[in-house]
Amino acid sequence: MGVPKRLTEMQQKFANELISNEGRKYAYQCAIDAGYEKDRARVTASELMNPNKYPLVVKYIGELREEYQKKYAVTFERHISELGKIRQDALKRGAWSAAVNAEVARGKAAGLYVEQKIIKTGKLEDLTTEQLEDKMRNIMKEYSSIINVTPEPEEIKGDTQKQKRIQKPTKQKQETPEKDKEEPSKVSSA
After folding, report:
1. Structure-derived torsion over alpha carbons of residues 173, 176, 182, 184, reported in degrees to the nearest 10
2. Cβ(90)–Cβ(99) under 8 Å?
């Protein structure tokens, strides 16, 4: 890719600053770094990106952007390779957590992990107690291999009834301090 012949050095520098710092700097900051006046930097940046005013600059920016995208494109092979390098560097430094995270990311990129989300509609509040208990039994049967739940619903129901019988509130007399036990003095009315 060649630089259009009619671009000034500052216009070229602006375009290079804009593309190489995309997402890190605002256009007006790139204009300042390219040598444009601070007072007019916002206006100048806007004008330089306007195809009606500076079509060659806009074309050059587009060509630079395309070149950068090709150069830094994320391909499967490059992505997996880069994650492998990150993992190896992390292992060398003893950063086990970073190494594991890089390896998991490689696995996800390779399609070794499948994330599932099940979205069901309906409200639990609309179900009867029997329907809720049936649903819980079915869930525990269906997912017993991944859910570690020991009590059955009948056991839970029985346990709560036992607890209610055991935990009957008892009223205890509160002891009053000795001085309060004395008889109150009689007040005579005159």
Report:
1. -90
2. yes
Predicted confidence at residue 2, as pLDDT, reads 63
Nearest to 32 by CA among 47, 45, 49, 50: 45
The type of residue at 92 is K
Residue 50, pLDDT above cutoff 90: yes
Bridge-partner residues for 25, per DSSP? 22
In the chain, helix, strand, coil percent, each to 5?
Answer: 60, 0, 40
Helix intervals (H) in 143-189: 153-166, 178-181
Nearest to 131 by CA among 120, 123, 121: 123
Rg (CA), the chain: 37
Would you state the pLDDT for residue 190? Answer: 45
How far is residue 143's CA from residue 35's CA, in Å, rounded to a whole number? 65
Q: What is the pLDDT of residues 85-144, one digit of tens each?
A: 888 988 899 988 888 888 888 888 777 777 777 676 777 777 888 888 888 888 888 877
* pLDDT of 57: 94
Alpha helices in 52-170 (DSSP H): 55-71, 76-93, 96-110, 129-142, 153-166
Token pair of 187 as six digits = 């007040």
Q: What is the pTM of this model?
A: 0.42
The CA distance from 66 to 71, in Å, is 9
